Amino acid sequence: MPTLSPARVSARVGFLQVCAAGVLWGTGGLAVQLLREHAPLSVLTISGYRTLVAALVLVAAVAVGRGWSATVSVARERPVAVIVVGVGTAAYQALYFGAVVNVGVSVSTVVSLGLAPVVLTVADAVRARRSGIRQGAGHLGVVAIAITGLALVATSDVGPAAPRPLLGIALAIASGSVYAGTVAMAGRLAQAGDPLHVTTATTAAGAVVVLPLVVAVDPAGMVGAVTTVRGVAGLAYLGIFTMALAYSLFNAGLRTTPGSTAAIATLLEPVTAAVAAALVLGERLTVAGIAGTALILVAIGFLSAGDGQRSGPRPQARSRRVRPQPDSRPVQAGGEPVGGSCYSCVMEPDRRADAPRLHPETAAEWEAWLAEHHDDPTPGCWVVQWRSGTGRPAIPYEPLIEAALAYGWIDGTRITVDTERTEMWFTRRRAGSQWTRLSKERVARLEAADRMTDAGRAVVERAKADGTWSLLDDAENLVVPPDLSTALDGVPGAREGWDAFTPGVRRSLLIWIAHAKRPQTRSTRVARTAAGAAMGEPANR
Questions:
Q1: CA–CA separation, 19 vs 116, rounded Å?
Q2: Residues 10-50: pLDDT tens digits?
Q3: 124, 159, 207, 427: which has the highest count of C-beta atoms within 10 A?
Q4: What's the whole-model pTM score?
Q5: Residue-range domain boundaries for the chain
Q6: At what angle do helices 246-253 and 195-217 cross, to 10 degrees?
C-alpha cells in the first residue's frame, strides 16, 4: 500500500486545520444571538470578554511552550503595530456582532466576509499602480462581481428577524473594511516573529486597550455577563473556540496550505453560519440574497486563484552572478538577523551563483523540494519570492524557515532581484553554526508536530555534541561575559551607557561578540562595544 510523503501528509493536515477554523468562525454569530437571548448584553461587552478569554488562553499556551520572551520581544520591538492590529481585531469583531444583532447572522457574515478581500484587492491595485507594476485585467471584473453580489444581499428581504436591516448592513460593511485594514497591517507585522507569538501579542494588546472602554461604557453588563453558568459558558465558547482555537488552527494551517486553498476552505464560515442560522434561528435568505451570496463566493474564488499572476515577468531561468553581501544585517527580536539566521553561509558567491533557483508559491511545494533534494551535492538553492505590493502569492518567512530546519537546512542572505522579486539563500547547516533561541524554539515546535526529519535531527544532535546548540544561551539571556564586564568598567561612562541600551540592543551586541571566531576578533569587538557604550552608540551598527 503506497504511503504519502511527509510533505503531502503535512499539507493535508494543514488543509483540515484551515477548514476547521472556517467552521468555528461560522458559529460565532449564532453563539452571539443565543447568548443575547439569554442575557441582553451589548455587543461591546461580548467582544471585550471574547478578546479577554482568547488572550488568557493564548498567553497560557505561550507560557506552556516557554515562548513568553519571544512574545514580549515582538510587543517591545513593534508596539504601535501590535496595538493597531489588536485594537483592529477587537473593533471588527464588535462591528460584526452589532451587524448580527441588527440584520441577522447570514447577511452579516456574507457581507463582512465578502467585502474584506475586495478592499484588499483594490488597495493592492492602487499600490501596484503607484509602483508601476501591471495588474491583471480581471481585477476590475472581480471587483464588479463582488459589488453586485453585495448589492443583492444588501437589498434582499431579510425577514422579521432583522429589526434594523440598514444599520446592520452598514455595520457589516464597516466590519469588513476594518478587517481588511487589520489584515494589511498584520501582514507587515507577521515577519516580527512566530505566528503564535504575534497572535498572542496582538490579542493581549487588544484586550488591554478594549477592556477599560467596556468597563467604562457598560460596567453593569460586565458584571451581569458572568453571573450565570450559561453566560459564562457562552463567553468561554466565543473566546476559546471562535477566537483562540480558530486563529491558532488557521495560522498553523497556513504553514503548509496554499493561500488559494485556504481562501476557499474558509468559505466554510458563511456556509456554516447560514446552515446554523437556518436550523436554529429560522433565518432564510431570499432568491436575491442567495444569488448575491453566490456572486460573492465566485468573486472570492477568483481572488483566491490569484488573478493577474500570469502577467509580468517570470523568474529568470538562467543563473547570474551574485555580489557577496557582508553579514551586517540588523538583529530582530530574539537575536536573529532580519531576513536570515545563518552565520556560516554568507560568502562563497561563485558557488551560489550557479545554485538552483526555485519559485515555490506554497509552503508545501518548498517542503516537497526539500524532501527530494535536501541531501543533494548542491551547495544550496535560491528561493525566489514576489515582493509585497505585487498582489502575487508569497510564502511567509516562518513556513520557509520551519521547512528548512526540518531537513537540517538554514536561510542566509536575502537580495533584491528586481522591482517585483527578492530571493533568499538556503543551504545545509554547517558544523559549527550557532543556534539562536528562535531556531531552537522552532525545532521544538517541529518535534511536537512530528515534522522533524531524520536529517534535521542529525544536525541538531551534532550541534548538541559540539556545544554550538547552547553557545548563544548566555548572550540571549543578557548575561555579560567577564571580558566585556571588565572592559565596561575600564572605560568611563561605558557601564552607564550599556545599562541604558534597550534589551534588544544589548542582546544583539552580546551575540555579535559571541560570533567571533578568533580570540583577537573577540577582543576587538569587546573593546569596540565598551567604547561605543560610553558614547551611547552600539558598536555593531
A1: 19
A2: 556 776 787 788 889 888 878 888 888 777 777 778 888 88
A3: 207
A4: 0.51
A5: 6-304, 349-471, 474-535
A6: 150
